[in-house]
Design a protein that fits this description.
The complex is a heterodimer of chains A (333) and B (109).
Chain A (H helix, E strand, L loop, with lengths): L1 E8 L5 H8 L8 E6 L7 H4 L7 E4 L9 H17 L7 E5 L6 H13 L4 E11 L3 H7 L1 H8 L3 E5 L8 H11 L5 E3 L7 H5 L4 H19 L10 E8 L5 H15 L3 E8 L9 E6 L2 E2 L3 E2 L10 E8 L3 H18 L2
Parallel strand pairs in A: 1-4, 1-5, 2-3, 2-4, 5-6, 6-7
Antiparallel strand pairs in A: 8-13, 9-10, 9-13, 10-11, 10-12
Helix pairs in contact in A: 3-4, 5-6, 10-11
Chain B lengths: L2 H24 L4 E5 L5 E5 L2 E7 L8 E5 L2 E5 L2 H12 L16 H4 L1
Antiparallel strand pairs in B: 1-2, 2-3, 3-4, 4-5
Helix pairs in contact in B: 1-2
The chains are: A alpha/beta (333), B alpha+beta (109).
Chain lengths: 333, 109
Amino acid sequence: MIPVTVLTGFLGSGKTTLLAHLLRDPALARTAVIINEFGAVGIDHELVAASEESLVELETGCLCCTIRGDLEATIADLVGRRAAGTISRFERIVIETSGLADPAPVLNAIMSETARGSGVQLAHVVTTIDSVLGAGTLLREAQSRRQVAVADQLVLTKCDLGGGDGDALREAVRELNPRAPMIEARHGVVAASEIFRAAGGVALELSSEIAALVADEQRRTGQLLHDEEIRSHIVRRERPIPGVVLTLFLQALADHIGEGLLRFKGFVHVAEHGEGPAIIHGVQHVFHEPQWLDRWPSEDRSTRLDLIGRGISSLWVEQLLDAIQAEVVEVGP
Amino acid sequence: MTARGEGGRDATDQAVLALVRTSLAVWSADARVRRTDDGLIEIETQRGAMHIARAPLAVPFRWLVRIEGRERAASSVAGLLRLLRSAVDDAWRPGRARIAPLLTPGDVA
């Protein structure tokens, strides 16, 4: 599978500068780049030195709304040309979204391509945050909060400029996303190895991320009934989950909290499948066909689900899964 | 009824009662929930009372919900929640998306 990295962040937060520096790293030489700009005249692609044949600019619309279909077609086209040998054999795809993009539909588009068998797979989401202006942006702009909430990797940019309230910004970011690693960029420079964490591939990245997330969740206390802020909720089950329980659980999530569910991801130990786990991805009402791993990426065989969204009650989610599981166990095989 | 069935039934009843209580609170429904002596879940709202009962074994449903004198059926906890939410939350519309049954690699082979 070709890993796809989504690089997002609000307008002016330093995405293109970061990407331009990253692509100078020889380790990322085999990278196809898709850049989306919101505006009639795109300039970002001029700032990024990728090979011309594997750099695609999507302009005059925002990736998350008007040209989502273009993104899917572009991914499919890139993969097709790679397979045909008409472009260099890239090893990863980086998608730089416009600063106004809601990341959820972008992730959905990638997962749709995975489901269609295009051979691509969402690897991780990198979000840039302006260390000078970011705190205000997070207060004002809902889209900025969503970009931070779904991130697997956070990059504080412009740290060389000084100014801004760093502590307040970090606190605001951690409220939205308590577990993604946060690194600082100075003059737009961050080591590629810090962003792409090459070892382990997609499954291990997800594994370590969720492990960290679980650990963080366990440190938190109390369960909120109402929570209008964007938060991450972890569901963990040690025993395997029957497939029908998972189906009914996802259906109920889609029915009742789909609108607020920015991202859903995790490993499921499916009772009927004794080998590797199913990796589940979902965004809002849409859950994609699971990807099955041949083996577990670590010793931990538990089901670990991460729900990121607004207005989600952890208590309700836990009780929902408990009730569905109890009903299915009672009925028996 | 087997021992597992009895224990399983109790576990399901408790789990569903807890879920119904929390769901109504999360949906901001002004409701009181209690289990009656005959095992029903009774929900009192300003619109009236609702009752949740187990469906008889002979019918292809799991739950029966009496709302404003009309009886409706649900085949799972997920379906039961849809009935309840429709009854207490005027702004809510059930989504049209349906999650397909999970197929393992063994099923596909």
